[in-house]
Specification:
This protein is α/β, with parallel strands linked by helices and 136 residues long. It has a single domain, classed as Rossmann fold (3-Layer(aba) Sandwich), CATH 3.40.50. The protein contains 5 helices and 4 strands. The protein has helices spanning 13-25, 50-57, 73-78, 92-95, 114-135, and strands at residues 3-7, 30-34, 81-84, 100-102. It has a 4-stranded parallel beta sheet, with helices on one face. Strand 1, helix 1 and strand 2 form a beta-alpha-beta unit. Helix 1 crosses helix 5 (114-135) and helix 2 packs across helix 5 (114-135). The chain is globular and about 35 Å long.
Amino acid sequence: MKVLFVCRANAGRSQMAEAFYNSITGTHDAVSAGVDLANSVKGDDLSVPPLVVAVMQEVGLDVSSNRRKWLTKEMVEAADKVIVMTDYPLLDYLVESPKLIRWDEVPDAVRTPIEFHREVRNLVKKKVEQLISELE
Protein backbone atom coordinates (compact mmCIF):
# COMPACT_ATOMS: atom_id res chain seq x y z
CA MET A 1 0.00 0.00 0.00
CA LYS A 2 1.57 3.28 -1.12
CA VAL A 3 0.95 6.03 1.43
CA LEU A 4 1.68 9.74 1.09
CA PHE A 5 1.97 11.80 4.28
CA VAL A 6 1.45 15.54 3.88
CA CYS A 7 2.00 18.43 6.26
CA ARG A 8 2.71 22.10 5.70
CA ALA A 9 6.50 22.16 5.36
CA ASN A 10 7.43 18.46 5.23
CA ALA A 11 9.71 19.22 8.16
CA GLY A 12 8.16 17.34 11.08
CA ARG A 13 4.91 15.40 11.21
CA SER A 14 5.00 13.97 7.71
CA GLN A 15 8.69 13.05 7.99
CA MET A 16 7.95 11.23 11.25
CA ALA A 17 4.98 9.40 9.75
CA GLU A 18 6.96 8.32 6.69
CA ALA A 19 9.76 6.95 8.88
CA PHE A 20 7.38 5.10 11.21
CA TYR A 21 5.35 3.61 8.37
CA ASN A 22 8.39 2.36 6.48
CA SER A 23 10.01 1.01 9.65
CA ILE A 24 6.92 -0.80 10.93
CA THR A 25 5.98 -2.28 7.54
CA GLY A 26 9.55 -3.02 6.51
CA THR A 27 8.89 -1.32 3.18
CA HIS A 28 9.64 1.93 1.41
CA ASP A 29 6.00 2.38 0.47
CA ALA A 30 5.53 5.68 2.32
CA VAL A 31 6.73 9.07 1.16
CA SER A 32 6.09 12.52 2.54
CA ALA A 33 5.74 16.03 1.18
CA GLY A 34 4.71 19.53 2.12
CA VAL A 35 2.28 22.05 0.69
CA ASP A 36 4.28 25.18 1.54
CA LEU A 37 8.02 24.73 1.98
CA ALA A 38 9.04 28.22 0.87
CA ASN A 39 7.21 30.09 3.63
CA SER A 40 8.18 27.71 6.39
CA VAL A 41 10.73 28.31 9.12
CA LYS A 42 13.28 26.28 7.13
CA GLY A 43 12.78 28.32 3.94
CA ASP A 44 15.20 27.12 1.24
CA ASP A 45 16.94 24.73 3.64
CA LEU A 46 15.65 21.28 2.66
CA SER A 47 17.07 19.45 5.69
CA VAL A 48 14.87 18.08 8.46
CA PRO A 49 14.98 20.25 11.63
CA PRO A 50 17.42 19.15 14.35
CA LEU A 51 14.70 18.60 16.98
CA VAL A 52 12.83 16.27 14.64
CA VAL A 53 16.04 14.37 13.94
CA ALA A 54 16.75 14.17 17.68
CA VAL A 55 13.33 12.85 18.77
CA MET A 56 13.32 10.28 15.99
CA GLN A 57 16.83 9.12 16.94
CA GLU A 58 15.49 8.57 20.47
CA VAL A 59 13.26 5.82 19.04
CA GLY A 60 15.95 4.39 16.77
CA LEU A 61 14.95 6.04 13.50
CA ASP A 62 17.40 8.18 11.54
CA VAL A 63 15.82 10.92 9.41
CA SER A 64 18.94 13.07 9.31
CA SER A 65 19.56 12.45 5.61
CA ASN A 66 15.92 13.03 4.60
CA ARG A 67 15.16 16.06 2.46
CA ARG A 68 11.95 18.07 2.46
CA LYS A 69 9.88 17.73 -0.72
CA TRP A 70 7.16 19.79 -2.36
CA LEU A 71 3.84 18.03 -2.84
CA THR A 72 3.01 17.29 -6.47
CA LYS A 73 -0.11 16.08 -8.21
CA GLU A 74 1.88 13.06 -9.40
CA MET A 75 2.62 12.09 -5.80
CA VAL A 76 -1.09 12.13 -4.99
CA GLU A 77 -1.91 10.10 -8.11
CA ALA A 78 0.75 7.48 -7.25
CA ALA A 79 -0.49 6.98 -3.68
CA ASP A 80 -3.20 4.61 -2.49
CA LYS A 81 -3.86 6.74 0.60
CA VAL A 82 -3.02 10.39 1.27
CA ILE A 83 -2.80 11.40 4.93
CA VAL A 84 -2.97 15.16 5.52
CA MET A 85 -1.79 16.71 8.80
CA THR A 86 -2.20 20.43 8.16
CA ASP A 87 -4.94 23.02 8.16
CA TYR A 88 -2.96 25.03 5.62
CA PRO A 89 -4.91 25.67 2.39
CA LEU A 90 -4.71 22.66 0.09
CA LEU A 91 -4.75 22.52 -3.69
CA ASP A 92 -8.00 21.39 -5.30
CA TYR A 93 -6.54 18.14 -6.61
CA LEU A 94 -5.71 17.14 -3.06
CA VAL A 95 -8.98 18.24 -1.46
CA GLU A 96 -10.97 16.44 -4.15
CA SER A 97 -8.99 13.20 -3.93
CA PRO A 98 -11.00 10.18 -2.74
CA LYS A 99 -7.73 8.93 -1.20
CA LEU A 100 -7.64 11.79 1.33
CA ILE A 101 -7.63 11.07 5.08
CA ARG A 102 -7.36 13.97 7.54
CA TRP A 103 -5.37 13.73 10.76
CA ASP A 104 -6.36 17.15 12.08
CA GLU A 105 -5.59 16.15 15.67
CA VAL A 106 -1.83 16.01 14.98
CA PRO A 107 -0.47 19.45 15.89
CA ASP A 108 2.45 21.23 14.27
CA ALA A 109 5.51 21.24 16.56
CA VAL A 110 7.34 24.11 14.83
CA ARG A 111 8.91 26.56 17.29
CA THR A 112 8.12 24.33 20.29
CA PRO A 113 10.42 22.68 22.85
CA ILE A 114 11.69 19.14 22.47
CA GLU A 115 9.10 17.84 24.95
CA PHE A 116 6.30 18.88 22.61
CA HIS A 117 8.14 17.31 19.66
CA ARG A 118 8.16 14.07 21.64
CA GLU A 119 4.41 14.29 22.23
CA VAL A 120 3.80 14.86 18.51
CA ARG A 121 6.16 11.99 17.63
CA ASN A 122 4.29 9.64 19.97
CA LEU A 123 0.92 10.68 18.55
CA VAL A 124 2.17 10.24 14.98
CA LYS A 125 3.47 6.76 15.81
CA LYS A 126 0.12 5.79 17.34
CA LYS A 127 -1.78 7.10 14.30
CA VAL A 128 0.55 5.25 11.89
CA GLU A 129 0.12 2.01 13.85
CA GLN A 130 -3.67 2.44 13.67
CA LEU A 131 -3.50 3.14 9.94
CA ILE A 132 -1.41 0.03 9.30
CA SER A 133 -3.83 -2.15 11.28
CA GLU A 134 -6.77 -0.73 9.29
CA LEU A 135 -5.00 -1.40 5.98
CA GLU A 136 -4.26 -5.05 6.80
